[in-house]
Request: fold
Amino acid sequence: MAISTSELPDIASAVLAFARSRRQMADRAEAELLVAACEWADLHPAESVSDAAAFTVPGGGEHEEPVAGPGAPLVAEFCIPEFGAVLDLHQPIVCDGYQPSARLREQVILRDRTCVFPWCTRPARGCDLDHIVPREHGGPTSTANLAALCRRHHRLKTHSAWTYVRTGPAAYTWTSPHGHTYVRDPAGTEPG
Ligand SMILES: [Zn+2]
Reply:
């Protein structure tokens, strides 16, 4: 948005406040865009598109091509890479407080996809974000120290002897109270 010079404040603290306010607006707009896009993607999983809406752009001839359904790009093919480009899934983000920023939250949701407890398939979007190393033990609110856990498994982790460590971008090694280990990564869960 263009800013006219008459809008610009003329004392340092006011300039700072103005800059922060504009930055917050920009961050909020970006977060809202991501949330809207991700929700749209959630509503249109790639495997459902061909059933949901198979139609072509009218006009005929060589320009007639499907925008959905067989032969059209899958939602995930154009959607998820776009999100990934906007929101680098591997760029470390660190927040000061206990609550992650909207941007960090989206990053963890897109990276983990589901609750990261062994075999759990609950979508990350409805999950809690767990501090892997608890905040009270110095764990930061960051890309490296947050993981998606559904409420049930978040409670289990908090109140039982299950422990886990992050071993890769979306890979976690869990240890059960009896000492068994399980490796959870984007491909699924395997005994460790
Ligand atoms: Zn779970």
